[in-house]
Amino acid sequence: MIAKKNRAFTLVETLIAVALFGMMAIYLGQACMNCSMLLDTLNKDSDEDFLREYVTTRIRAVQSIDELESGIDFVAPDSSQVRVMGKAYPSVFLDLFEFAFTVKSTSLNYEDTIFLIRRNWYEDSNERDDLIKDRTDYLETSRRQKSRLN
To answer: What are the tens digits of pLDDT across the range 74-104?
Structure first.
């Protein structure tokens, strides 16, 4: 009698197949990402995006909270007159302010919020010192509690 030979995949053949499958999946995923990025780029309004970035840059350049809250006027690169008004709110983090603003121009009207780091925007000169003391006290208290638990 002739011995029947069992045919099966060896470990090396299986590993090669898995590696090839993985490489094909990566290339297919990359191709899909490139297509979706291309579609996103085609759907964007580059003039509007540029104007939004320009307005944000102008806001970040202003150092006075009073000037920003009373409104700033400037001419955009597309020669449209732009007015930015908003309100700054202190966050729970030291020196970080949330600035909610409205932009009105002949070509674009929108509302947005950005975060700005400004040391000199506190209404009361002692407010920043009080925040530092509160944060220091909180950290010291939490460290003491952790050391008691250990």
So the answer is: 998 888 899 999 998 888 787 888 999 999 9
CA distance 15 to 28: 20
Overall pTM > 0.85:
no
List the domain range (segments joined by +) for residue 96: 46-142
Token pair, residue 92, equals 């729970």
Total domains present in the chain: 1
3-state secondary structure 5-16: CCCCCCHHHHHH
37 occurs within a structural domain? no
Q: 71 in a domain, yes or no? A: yes
3-class secondary structure, 119: coil
Nearest alpha carbon to residue 104 among 132, 130, 128, 76: 76
